[in-house]
Design goal:
The complex is a heterodimer of chains A (299) and B (322).
Chain A (H helix, E strand, L loop, with lengths): L2 H25 L4 E7 L4 E4 L1 H4 L4 E17 L1 H8 L4 E9 L2 E7 L33 H7 L13 E14 L8 E6 L7 E7 L7 H23 L3 H18 L9 H7 L8 H25 L1
Parallel strand pairs in A: 2-4
Antiparallel strand pairs in A: 1-8, 2-7, 3-6, 3-7, 3-8, 4-5
Helix pairs in contact in A: 1-5
Chain B lengths: L1 H15 L22 H21 L11 H16 L12 E6 L7 E7 L9 E7 L7 E7 L18 E2 L10 H14 L13 H19 L3 E8 L5 E4 L5 E14 L22 E14 L9 E6 L2 E5 L1
Antiparallel strand pairs in B: 1-2, 2-3, 3-4, 5-7, 6-8, 7-8, 8-9, 9-10, 9-11
Classes of the chains: A alpha+beta (299), B alpha+beta (322).
Chain lengths: 299, 322
Amino acid sequence: MTLRTTAIIAGALGLLMMIAGLIAQGMRPEHSVVTQATLDTPVVVLAPEVLALPELQRLAVTADGGVEAHAGRPVDAVAWLGEHSATYITGYESWDILTTRTASRITADVESPSPSASAEPTASAEPSPSASPSPSPDEAGADAPEEVYDYGSGDLWRQNWAGVDRVSVAVSAVPPGEYFVVNSVDGSNLGAIEISAERQVNDAWISPLTWIGAALTALGLLAVLSALVDLRPLQERVESWTTKRSRIATGEDVKPGSRRERRLAGSTLPDVDLDENDEKDHKDQSDEKDDKDEKGGQS
Amino acid sequence: MRRTVVAVTVAVLALAGCAAAPPVPGATPSLEAEAALTEPQAAAIIESTFAELSAADAAKDPELFAPRFAADAALVRGAEYTVAGKVAEAPVSVLPEQMQGIYVSRSETWPRMFAAVSEPPEGELTPVVYLWVQESVEQPYRLVAWAHMIPGAVLPAMPGQINGAEPLALGEEGIDPSPRKALEDYVEYLRQGADSELAAAFAPDSYSEQLFGARAALSKAAKGASGAYVDTVQPDFASTFALATSDGGALIFAPIEIASSFKVKDATLKLSARDAPLLQGTAKDTVTYNYRDFVVLSVPPPGQEELPGVVAAEHHLVSIKP
């Protein structure tokens, strides 16, 4: 397999990687997600273990009219909730669906918004929706005070928030361990709850995949182009240029004393008189032999 | 090629969906503050109470303080309005609304209470101890009693407002005497008088001394008219609360009902101008003064030689019946 073939294969893989990266980028889920649930009770509740989920950022509840939100001690909130129909948000089924539980409290009193069967003979200071004659529906709608449901004392709530048509509270504003309770002011059913969360998305691989794929694609594209385009004239020109450069390099202008001059002049090994040394060595060997002969005659 | 494209698409879609799974609720985090009321809650209740009291005082109308007043406090203030409406020299008692201490409990049941100690009012009066009670989760906290501190008395240190004081059952065995026993003995002491053997079981207090002094004077006056004077003292255990103090003792908040009957023979009693507005009917030879008193008893922790004693008490006249 040639280098060009390898590059083309890498380019093909790179193209697939780049396409995959771009599609993944387009399909990547958002980090912020808002999950909604419709409500059919006047009260919605989030227990402290749900509020403790680290992903939760903000809670918003919509209604047609005034909305009140409270934070309270669990034992107090549970006692209060025992008197009212409520929807409990218990967690997530998926990022798009909340799991809920509804506790309904059935009362026989339908006409009056007040759950207490008070027998006090004194006239109530609160406006009665049925007793006050209104001149026309339009005018009544503009001037009639908002009906207030009697939820009892609010002394048990540690914190309170209020809004019209919508109340929105940061989850961090509710102290750990406390219940979060929202109710409509007029006792009617709430609209919906929206829970904003910041979720973890495993998208760190998308950008590297895309860029590496792009680089490999470019490499493969070059390899393909090199196979399609005849480069021999270009190679010939390159060789000619190289030869020319070489010819210039073997010109006759040689600097005196330069390395090139010495190289052209040949070897510069020192001259050694080999004969003189040989005679001297031969003489030394003869003297040693005469000394040995004299020692042998005396013995 | 088609298979490759399909495979890549599926892989991309699978990878693109790599958002973390939705979280699952775990353990319930612990509360930062375990008290039944936080400081802002108590402050809001106090502010609301005195706002209603101010409006009611201005109109001398008990209906205006009804949402925040109940029980003995409503009766006492109503009686003060009655007297003040008839006697110019008898204004209603001044109740300071600035507090120097708030005692909350960590109670998880109802009824539950919190108490507050006011700043010293103007003049030579001592600070006032107030008691608020919430009867049920749907009811608001209502002021049910108040009493000035006994001169020289010291309230024991109480746990902070973060976790509140532990509510004690009246029969609490870790306290000696138990709150019930202490209250029973003190009420018996009030019945028997200064010569009672129980006098040695309690630190001296000006409340009992004044009660005994008045009893002696009125008994002497009744005897002079061939009559009799009788004090009937009854505790109200159902409305009595006890909190553990920081050092292991107890602070008992107890309403006490006292009926003082004055009877003479062959004569018609005439009430003072100050008392007459409270008379329900026509006085003849017998009148009974009904009081709704409030006593705060301090029981020291076990092992201390200090005696239980009254730290705040007040004698409130609410009605006179023939």
